[in-house]
């Protein structure tokens, strides 16, 4: 059973521009708290939109009524052999093997609009910070952070510890006077039928929530 994990993303101040210097400063905060760089990680998110009858991907046109308009796929770095698909309107999180993306391409019912990759650097206290970039692009689309607390797998029992860590982290970031801050948007796991015991499905749902926030920030 995996440990409890919180996902956070960088929320820039109004008018501020996202840049790699912010990422470097965030990594510096991790090191100031005792973190040590140790390897690289990559989590991938695929955003699919249903193909319409005229062969395009988008809200216009007609599509079969039993197909959800959008799907999110998540390939986690800690579970390379698995793939998680999320249907947000139906509040479903499904598990498949890593060949799922190839199956989706062959079915041609959906078209992948964007693939986002999160590359992480691991610190001693289970903190991962990394950039969000579109597939085959180095352009920075967002900054993400994972925090794991290894001793517990209960979301409720670990809440106070995670909140305390987040407070300490925010204080460290505030000392850098950066144009923005990290935020944690809590996912409603019960809507997806997930229990208090943390699982990889919980992580997939959190990535879906963070992706919504990143896309909203980009439009803003």
Automatic annotation (TrEMBL):
Q: Which gene encodes it?
A: MED20
Which protein family is named in the record? Belongs to the Mediator complex subunit 20 family.
Its GO CC terms are: nucleus; protein-containing complex
**What role is this protein assigned?**
Component of the Mediator complex, a coactivator involved in the regulated transcription of nearly all RNA polymerase II-dependent genes. Mediator functions as a bridge to convey information from gene-specific regulatory proteins to the basal RNA polymerase II transcription machinery. Mediator is recruited to promoters by direct interactions with regulatory proteins and serves as a scaffold for the assembly of a functional preinitiation complex with RNA polymerase II and the general transcription factors.
Assembly information from the UniProt record = Component of the Mediator complex.
What keywords are assigned to this protein? Activator, Nucleus, Transcription, Transcription regulation
Question: Matching InterPro entries, A to Z?
Answer: Mediator_Med20 (IPR013921)
Principal subcellular localisation of the protein: nucleus
Kindly list the places in or outside the cell where this protein is found, as annotated in its UniProt entry. Answer: Nucleus
Residue ranges annotated as coiled coil are none
Q: Which Pfam families match?
A: Med20 (PF08612)
Record the organism. Answer: Urochloa decumbens
Full protein name: Mediator of RNA polymerase II transcription subunit 20
The lineage's top-level taxon is Eukaryota
């Amino acid at each position: 059973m995996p440990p409890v994990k919180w996902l956070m993303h960088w929320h820039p101040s109004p008018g501020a521009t996202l840049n790699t210097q912010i990422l470097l400063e965030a990594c510096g905060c991790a090191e100031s708290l005792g973190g040590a760089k140790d390897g690289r990680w990559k989590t991938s998110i695929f955003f699919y939109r249903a193909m319409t009858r005229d062969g395009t991907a988008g809200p216009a046109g007609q599509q079969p009524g039993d197909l959800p308009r959008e799907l999110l796929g998540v390939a986690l770095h800690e579970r390379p052999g698995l793939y998680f698909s999320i249907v947000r309107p139906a509040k479903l999180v499904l598990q498949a093997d890593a060949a799922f993306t190839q199956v989706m391409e062959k079915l041609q019912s959906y078209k992948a609009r964007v693939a986002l990759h999160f590359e992480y650097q691991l610190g001693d206290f289970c903190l991962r910070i990394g950039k969000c970039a579109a597939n085959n692009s180095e352009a920075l689309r967002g900054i993400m952070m994972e925090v794991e607390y290894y001793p517990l797998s209960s979301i409720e029992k670990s809440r106070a510890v995670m909140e305390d860590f987040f407070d300490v982290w925010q204080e460290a970031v505030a000392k850098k006077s950066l144009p923005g801050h990290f935020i944690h948007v809590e996912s409603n796991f019960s809507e997806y039928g997930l229990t208090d015991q943390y699982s990889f499905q919980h992580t997939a749902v959190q990535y879906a929530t963070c992706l919504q926030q990143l896309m909203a920030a980009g439009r803003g």
